[in-house]
Amino acid sequence: MPLKLEPIQLAFLVCSFFIVDFSDAYLAPIAARLPLKGTPSPPGTPWPEPMSANFSISIATIGNRDSITFTSNLNNCSILNSAFNRYSPDLIFRDLPVESASGYPVFAGIEIILPSGIENQCGEYPRLALEEERDTYEKYELRVEQDSDSTVTAKIQAWTVWGALRGLETFSQLIWQNGTSNNFFINISQIVDSPRYPHRGFMIDTARHYVDIPVIETILEAMSYTKLNVLHWHIVDDQSFPFVSKTFPELSAKGAYLPELTYEPEEVQDIINYARDRGIRVILEFDTPGHTHVYRKSFPQLLTPCYGDGVNPGTPSPDKHAAYEILDPTKEFTYSFMKQLFTEIKNVTKDEFIHLGMDEVYYSCWQSSPEITAFMEQNNYTEYSQVQEHYTLRHLDMVKSLGAKPLIWHDPLEFGVNLDKDIVLQVWKKNGSDWAPYLQHALDEGYQVILSSPWYLNYIAYGETWREYYESDPVLSLPNITEDQEKLILGGEACVWAEYADPTNLVQRVFPYIGAIAERLWSPISTLDKNRTDDAMHRLDQHRCRLLWRGIPAQPIFNGYCFPQEKSIRRSSKK
Ligand SMILES: *[C@@H]1O[C@H](CO)[C@@H](O)[C@H](O)[C@H]1NC(C)=O
Ligand SMILES: *[C@@H]1O[C@H](CO)[C@@H](O)[C@H](O)[C@H]1NC(C)=O
Ligand SMILES: *[C@@H]1O[C@H](CO)[C@@H](O)[C@H](O)[C@H]1NC(C)=O
Ligand SMILES: *[C@@H]1O[C@H](CO)[C@@H](O)[C@H](O)[C@H]1NC(C)=O
Ligand SMILES: *[C@@H]1O[C@H](CO)[C@@H](O)[C@H](O)[C@H]1NC(C)=O
Ligand SMILES: *[C@@H]1O[C@H](CO)[C@@H](O)[C@H](O)[C@H]1NC(C)=O
Ligand SMILES: *[C@@H]1O[C@H](CO)[C@@H](O)[C@H](O)[C@H]1NC(C)=O
Ligand SMILES: *[C@@H]1O[C@H](CO)[C@@H](O)[C@H](O)[C@H]1NC(C)=O
Ligand SMILES: *[C@@H]1O[C@H](CO)[C@@H](O)[C@H](O)[C@H]1NC(C)=O
Fold first, then answer.
1. Residue 558 confidence (pLDDT)
2. CA-closest residue to ligand 4 atom 7
3. Between the N and C ends of the chain, which has fewer C-beta atoms within 10 Å?
4. Could you tell me the distance, in angstroms and rounded to a whole number, from the CA of residue 56 to the centre of ligand 1?
């Protein structure tokens, strides 16, 4: 059933006040020479934009730091209890004192209402919502309303604990501070909200640079503030193998940068649980048959020797291939090794999906290899894509036999490999800035897809690059898409390949820009017009201030300063 889309109703009359006078606004971007584009949003405007929201200009005052009580009809639910602890006074008010403003009704607390009988979810992990569940899986209804005793309360109705978490996040965003006063308010409001897509992710790469666990946790926190729900963890690659395998400990012993720059399986599971508490799935990626140079350090027999000089195995060819770079698809050892490794991976991960990579299998090494030539003759193969297919299909079948669902980059499709239709493809390629034909191709072939092509945050450019992310739409950017094909789109992911990113700059690189992608994937489809993007800038800037306020070092998106957050954050910097 399609979502019912309703326009957002904002208090336009009140907004116009902010155009004239920024002095009271939450955010103060500075229009220095030319007028600022777009309509500033009032304080307490949530990001991403809800499916349907009505805000009144009637407000309630927050009584004091501890006066927001959290309750639920679902007792003893660890996911909700830990969320109640997170949405603590510190998150909402930092270290500020909170004083009740006279003359306003007092806000009492928030109550979460869930259907009875879903207690078991409290011990589960979030997953990709099934098609028939998508209307309710992360849906919530949030009403801030005046009760008969004249106090104001908030009520969240949700259908799953994950929906309740999304509602709590929106609730926390509705509370605003009046200037630098100690008065905090919440508007009477009604919100009905549910995401446009069930898969809204971010990919980290911990092979090119190791990312410390506390930084991954910060990313997960900030993702939950932005309603992203999948951490795609590209954990190993050519450069390093930080995952500690109990089955093959040599992999990290020889492949990690340093013994301490590793992730023990227990640490991976801790991260998965940290993510689960925030309604975020963790999908592990172990990329093969390319991007496997690191396996050679401990298991040299896994890789095809390349014949760069035409005579000797294990010789590179400048600009074409390395001495070894792709798994050897001709040996049974390759398959039995991978079966053991993936059995362990399946036991560590909690998600039904495992990402199997399959990208950038370049043929020049195989072309140089007499062993591959002999293998092709034996199998009657005439194309190198058949060698790729040989590995790909066996590997996919093996992973399916372990009970996991494979997710792969779309390269095999582009190389003409015949894949089963139940494989989910992640589309990343672009030709210049043109990516729509790649997505269209995957849809024409009938695959379910996750889009990443327009959302590589590792490309650094001057200016407001988030606008391009915001204006890339999986449906509106495809002139030829059919209604049936729209249903094959599961969502999208922002990616950061980490050649030039590590814990010193990763969080700043990603936040708040990824918010543009999060809103594209969460909020109802809307036209791609520049005025909407201009308006979004103000809300995104407000969200950036909110992230700063919560301790996330999100980079600026424009001139200006966060008012009053920066004043509070910097209070002690100049005395
Ligand atoms: C909330 O109420 C205040 C005070 O009436 C008003 O200025 C503001 O525009 C309202 N917020 C929204 C999002 O409408
Ligand atoms: C609460 O849940 C935990 C397990 O999550 C269980 O051990 C405990 O007995 C429960 N307590 C009550 C009061 O139900
Ligand atoms: C917010 O603060 C301003 C300046 O102190 C004051 O004029 C205004 O009445 C306050 N707004 C509310 C809703 O209390
Ligand atoms: C907001 O108001 C409009 C117009 O009255 C209504 O159609 C819509 O259902 C309301 N949305 C919510 C979330 O209450
Ligand atoms: C599976 O994981 C558990 C702990 O989560 C561990 O005790 C067990 O040895 C693992 N089994 C395999 C085959 O890796
Ligand atoms: C290759 O082709 C030959 C001749 O058509 C056939 O006899 C042989 O069985 C084929 N081998 C394989 C592995 O398909
Ligand atoms: C990329 O775009 C250029 C210019 O539009 C075109 O000539 C070329 O064939 C395209 N390449 C691919 C791989 O589609
Ligand atoms: C849409 O179809 C037209 C006509 O077949 C084609 O020229 C164009 O490349 C297609 N666009 C995309 C994004 O696939
Ligand atoms: C965009 O905003 C400009 C300036 O306010 C206005 O003239 C124009 O009509 C708007 N365009 C659309 C499509 O709403």
1. 87
2. 6
3. C
4. 7
> Measured in angstroms, how far is the CA atom of residue 350 from the centroid of ligand 5?
12
**Fold of the domain built from segment(s) 199-522:** TIM Barrel (3.20.20)
Q: 180 CB less than 6 Å from ligand 7?
A: no
Amino acid, res. 268: V
449 CA → ligand 5 middle, Å: 32
Measure the CA angle with vertex 246, ends 242 and 249; round to 5°.
55
What is the rounded CA–CA span in Å between residue 63 and residue 52? 28
Q: How confident is the model at residue 31 (pLDDT cuts 50, 70, 90)?
A: low
Q: For ligand 8, which residues put their CB under 6 angstroms from it? A: 436-437, 440, 478-480
pLDDT in tens, 462-490: 999 999 999 999 999 999 999 999 999 99
Centre of ligand 7 from the C-alpha of residue 432, in Å: 8
Q: Where in the chain is the domain with CATH 3.30.379.10?
A: 42-193
Q: Which atom of ligand 3 is nearest to the CA of 101?
A: 14
pLDDT at 19: 32
What's the whole-number mean pLDDT along residues 282-306? Answer: 98
Cβ neighbour number for residue 103 with a 10 Å cutoff: 6
What are phi and psi for residue 273, nearest 5 degrees? -70, -40
Establish whether residue 73 lines the binding site of ligand 6, counting it when its CB lies within 6 angstroms of any ligand atom: no
CATH superfamily of domain region 42-193: Chitobiase/beta-hexosaminidase domain 2-like (3.30.379.10)
Establish whether residue 555 lines the binding site of ligand 3, counting it when its CB lies within 6 angstroms of any ligand atom: no
User: Mean per-residue pLDDT for 209-226?
Assistant: 98
Pocket of ligand 4 (CB under 6 A): 6, 9, 52-54, 190-192
Q: Mark whether 486 is an active-site residue.
A: no
Asked if 219 and 509 count as a contact pair (C-beta separation under 8 A), the reply is no
| Tokens 């925030």 found at | 278
Per-residue model confidence as pLDDT tens digits over 194-212: 999 999 999 999 999 999 9
- 193 DSSP β-pair partners: 140
Q: How far apart are CA 300 and CA 303, in angstroms?
A: 6
- Longest CA–CA span in the chain (Å) reads 89
